[in-house]
Task: inverse folding
Protein backbone atom coordinates (compact mmCIF):
# COMPACT_ATOMS: atom_id res chain seq x y z
CA UNK A 1 0.00 0.00 0.00
CA UNK A 2 1.35 3.40 -1.03
CA UNK A 3 1.18 5.75 1.96
CA UNK A 4 2.13 8.88 0.02
CA UNK A 5 -1.47 10.27 0.22
CA UNK A 6 -1.17 10.16 4.02
CA UNK A 7 2.08 12.13 4.09
CA UNK A 8 0.83 14.58 1.45
CA UNK A 9 -2.40 15.13 3.39
CA UNK A 10 -0.56 15.72 6.66
CA UNK A 11 1.91 18.10 4.99
CA UNK A 12 -0.82 20.02 3.19
CA UNK A 13 -3.07 20.19 6.28
CA UNK A 14 -0.22 21.30 8.55
CA UNK A 15 0.92 24.10 6.22
CA UNK A 16 -2.65 25.16 5.52
CA UNK A 17 -3.33 25.31 9.26
CA UNK A 18 -0.32 27.58 9.79
CA UNK A 19 -1.53 29.90 7.01
CA UNK A 20 -5.10 29.78 8.28
CA UNK A 21 -4.00 30.47 11.85
CA UNK A 22 -2.15 33.65 10.88
CA UNK A 23 -4.69 34.92 8.36
CA UNK A 24 -7.72 33.98 10.46
CA UNK A 25 -6.48 35.66 13.62
CA UNK A 26 -5.57 38.95 12.00
CA UNK A 27 -8.73 38.95 9.86
CA UNK A 28 -10.84 38.39 12.98
CA UNK A 29 -9.07 41.18 14.85
CA UNK A 30 -9.46 43.55 11.89
CA UNK A 31 -13.16 42.81 11.36
CA UNK A 32 -13.74 43.21 15.09
CA UNK A 33 -12.61 46.84 14.82
CA UNK A 34 -14.89 47.62 11.86
CA UNK A 35 -18.32 49.17 12.18
CA UNK A 36 -20.09 50.21 8.97
CA UNK A 37 -18.85 47.56 6.53
CA UNK A 38 -18.31 44.77 9.03
CA UNK A 39 -21.21 42.63 7.81
CA UNK A 40 -20.06 42.91 4.19
CA UNK A 41 -16.48 41.87 4.97
CA UNK A 42 -17.73 39.16 7.31
CA UNK A 43 -19.89 37.77 4.51
CA UNK A 44 -16.96 37.70 2.09
CA UNK A 45 -14.69 35.95 4.59
CA UNK A 46 -17.39 33.40 5.46
CA UNK A 47 -18.34 32.65 1.85
CA UNK A 48 -16.07 29.57 1.39
CA UNK A 49 -17.94 27.96 4.28
CA UNK A 50 -21.26 27.90 2.44
CA UNK A 51 -20.12 27.54 -1.16
CA UNK A 52 -19.63 24.03 -2.58
CA UNK A 53 -15.90 23.16 -2.56
CA UNK A 54 -15.92 22.68 -6.32
CA UNK A 55 -17.18 26.26 -6.73
CA UNK A 56 -14.34 27.46 -4.49
CA UNK A 57 -11.94 25.45 -6.63
CA UNK A 58 -13.42 27.00 -9.76
CA UNK A 59 -12.76 30.51 -8.46
CA UNK A 60 -9.23 29.50 -7.44
CA UNK A 61 -8.64 28.24 -10.98
CA UNK A 62 -9.75 31.60 -12.34
CA UNK A 63 -7.52 33.48 -9.89
CA UNK A 64 -4.41 31.34 -10.35
CA UNK A 65 -4.99 30.25 -13.95
CA UNK A 66 -2.38 30.90 -16.62
CA UNK A 67 -4.57 33.55 -18.26
CA UNK A 68 -5.24 35.53 -15.04
CA UNK A 69 -3.22 38.55 -13.95
CA UNK A 70 -1.95 36.75 -10.86
CA UNK A 71 -1.25 33.58 -12.82
CA UNK A 72 0.79 35.45 -15.42
CA UNK A 73 2.70 37.25 -12.66
CA UNK A 74 3.53 33.97 -10.94
CA UNK A 75 4.55 32.39 -14.24
CA UNK A 76 6.90 35.30 -14.96
CA UNK A 77 8.54 34.59 -11.59
CA UNK A 78 8.87 30.91 -12.40
CA UNK A 79 6.10 29.93 -9.98
CA UNK A 80 3.10 27.75 -10.69
CA UNK A 81 0.48 26.48 -8.22
CA UNK A 82 -1.70 24.56 -10.66
CA UNK A 83 -1.46 20.78 -10.19
CA UNK A 84 1.14 21.08 -7.44
CA UNK A 85 1.06 20.33 -3.72
CA UNK A 86 1.36 24.08 -3.13
CA UNK A 87 -1.97 24.42 -4.92
CA UNK A 88 -3.41 21.85 -2.53
CA UNK A 89 -2.19 23.99 0.38
CA UNK A 90 -3.90 27.07 -1.08
CA UNK A 91 -7.16 25.17 -1.59
CA UNK A 92 -7.07 23.75 1.95
CA UNK A 93 -6.27 27.17 3.38
CA UNK A 94 -9.21 28.83 1.63
CA UNK A 95 -11.78 26.26 2.73
CA UNK A 96 -10.53 26.06 6.33
CA UNK A 97 -10.10 29.82 6.75
CA UNK A 98 -13.76 30.59 7.62
CA UNK A 99 -13.67 28.11 10.52
CA UNK A 100 -10.60 29.75 12.01
CA UNK A 101 -11.93 33.23 11.34
CA UNK A 102 -15.45 32.82 12.70
CA UNK A 103 -14.44 30.82 15.78
CA UNK A 104 -11.66 33.29 16.59
CA UNK A 105 -13.89 36.34 16.25
CA UNK A 106 -16.41 34.62 18.53
CA UNK A 107 -13.67 34.02 21.10
CA UNK A 108 -12.49 37.63 20.83
CA UNK A 109 -16.01 38.93 21.40
CA UNK A 110 -16.23 37.00 24.68
CA UNK A 111 -13.29 38.92 26.17
CA UNK A 112 -14.32 41.47 28.79
CA UNK A 113 -14.30 44.89 27.13
CA UNK A 114 -13.32 46.53 30.42
CA UNK A 115 -10.08 44.56 30.35
CA UNK A 116 -9.25 45.97 26.92
CA UNK A 117 -10.20 49.51 27.96
CA UNK A 118 -7.97 49.23 31.01
CA UNK A 119 -5.03 48.13 28.86
CA UNK A 120 -5.56 51.05 26.49
CA UNK A 121 -5.78 53.45 29.44
CA UNK A 122 -2.37 52.22 30.60
CA UNK A 123 -0.97 53.23 27.21
CA UNK A 124 -0.71 49.81 25.61
CA UNK A 125 -0.60 49.89 21.80
CA UNK A 126 -3.13 47.93 19.75
CA UNK A 127 -0.43 45.45 18.67
CA UNK A 128 0.67 44.75 22.24
CA UNK A 129 -2.97 44.65 23.29
CA UNK A 130 -3.61 41.92 20.75
CA UNK A 131 -0.64 39.72 21.66
CA UNK A 132 -0.51 40.30 25.43
CA UNK A 133 -4.18 40.62 26.37
CA UNK A 134 -6.71 39.64 23.71
CA UNK A 135 -4.96 36.52 22.36
CA UNK A 136 -3.94 34.99 25.74
CA UNK A 137 -7.41 35.50 27.24
CA UNK A 138 -9.20 34.03 24.22
CA UNK A 139 -6.62 31.30 23.63
CA UNK A 140 -8.86 28.28 24.46
CA UNK A 141 -11.28 29.29 21.69
CA UNK A 142 -8.44 30.08 19.29
CA UNK A 143 -6.82 26.70 19.97
CA UNK A 144 -10.10 24.90 19.31
CA UNK A 145 -10.48 26.86 16.06
CA UNK A 146 -6.98 25.81 15.01
CA UNK A 147 -7.71 22.13 15.62
CA UNK A 148 -10.98 22.32 13.68
CA UNK A 149 -9.23 24.13 10.83
CA UNK A 150 -6.67 21.33 10.66
CA UNK A 151 -9.41 18.70 10.51
CA UNK A 152 -11.18 20.62 7.74
CA UNK A 153 -7.96 21.02 5.75
CA UNK A 154 -7.16 17.34 6.18
CA UNK A 155 -10.43 16.24 4.62
CA UNK A 156 -10.61 18.79 1.79
CA UNK A 157 -11.50 17.26 -1.59
CA UNK A 158 -13.45 19.43 -4.04
CA UNK A 159 -11.27 22.54 -4.22
CA UNK A 160 -8.11 20.43 -4.01
CA UNK A 161 -8.91 18.25 -7.00
CA UNK A 162 -9.93 21.33 -9.00
CA UNK A 163 -6.73 23.28 -8.31
CA UNK A 164 -4.12 20.62 -7.56
CA UNK A 165 -5.51 17.70 -9.51
CA UNK A 166 -4.97 14.02 -8.78
CA UNK A 167 -1.31 13.19 -9.33
CA UNK A 168 -0.17 10.11 -7.34
CA UNK A 169 2.81 10.86 -5.15
CA UNK A 170 2.52 14.62 -5.74
CA UNK A 171 -0.97 16.02 -5.15
CA UNK A 172 -3.07 12.97 -4.29
CA UNK A 173 -4.38 13.46 -0.76
CA UNK A 174 -6.29 10.84 1.22
CA UNK A 175 -9.68 12.23 0.19
CA UNK A 176 -8.67 12.15 -3.46
CA UNK A 177 -7.20 8.64 -2.98
CA UNK A 178 -10.57 7.43 -1.66
CA UNK A 179 -12.32 8.87 -4.71
CA UNK A 180 -9.78 7.28 -7.06
CA UNK A 181 -10.03 3.90 -5.34
CA UNK A 182 -13.80 3.89 -5.62
CA UNK A 183 -13.64 4.95 -9.26
CA UNK A 184 -11.33 2.05 -10.02
CA UNK A 185 -13.45 -0.41 -8.05
CA UNK A 186 -10.84 -0.99 -5.35
CA UNK A 187 -13.16 -0.87 -2.37
CA UNK A 188 -10.68 -2.47 0.01
CA UNK A 189 -8.18 0.33 -0.56
CA UNK A 190 -10.94 2.92 -0.18
CA UNK A 191 -11.99 1.37 3.15
CA UNK A 192 -8.41 1.54 4.40
CA UNK A 193 -8.10 5.23 3.58
CA UNK A 194 -11.51 5.93 5.11
CA UNK A 195 -10.43 4.16 8.32
CA UNK A 196 -7.18 6.17 8.46
CA UNK A 197 -8.77 9.55 7.87
CA UNK A 198 -11.58 8.76 10.36
CA UNK A 199 -9.02 7.78 12.99
CA UNK A 200 -7.05 11.01 12.50
CA UNK A 201 -10.22 13.11 12.49
CA UNK A 202 -11.51 11.43 15.65
CA UNK A 203 -8.17 12.00 17.38
CA UNK A 204 -8.32 15.65 16.32
CA UNK A 205 -11.82 16.12 17.75
CA UNK A 206 -10.80 14.26 20.93
CA UNK A 207 -7.84 16.61 21.42
CA UNK A 208 -10.08 19.63 20.87
CA UNK A 209 -12.63 18.42 23.43
CA UNK A 210 -9.89 17.56 25.92
CA UNK A 211 -8.25 20.95 25.46
CA UNK A 212 -11.45 22.96 25.90
CA UNK A 213 -12.58 20.96 28.95
CA UNK A 214 -9.11 21.22 30.50
CA UNK A 215 -8.97 24.97 29.93
CA UNK A 216 -12.49 25.40 31.32
CA UNK A 217 -11.48 23.49 34.45
CA UNK A 218 -8.40 25.68 34.87
CA UNK A 219 -10.43 28.88 34.48
CA UNK A 220 -13.04 27.61 36.95
CA UNK A 221 -10.33 26.74 39.45
CA UNK A 222 -8.73 30.14 39.12
CA UNK A 223 -12.08 31.83 39.57
CA UNK A 224 -12.75 29.91 42.80
CA UNK A 225 -9.30 30.72 44.16
CA UNK A 226 -9.83 34.38 43.27
CA UNK A 227 -12.90 34.42 45.46
Result:
Amino acid sequence: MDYSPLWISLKVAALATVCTFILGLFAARWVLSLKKIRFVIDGVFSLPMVLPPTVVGFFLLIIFGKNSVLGKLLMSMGLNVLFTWQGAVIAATVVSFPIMYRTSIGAFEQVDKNLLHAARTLGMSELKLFFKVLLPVSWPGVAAATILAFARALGEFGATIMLAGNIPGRTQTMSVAIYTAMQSGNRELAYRWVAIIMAISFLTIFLMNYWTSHQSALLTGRGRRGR
Notes: The mean pLDDT is 89.
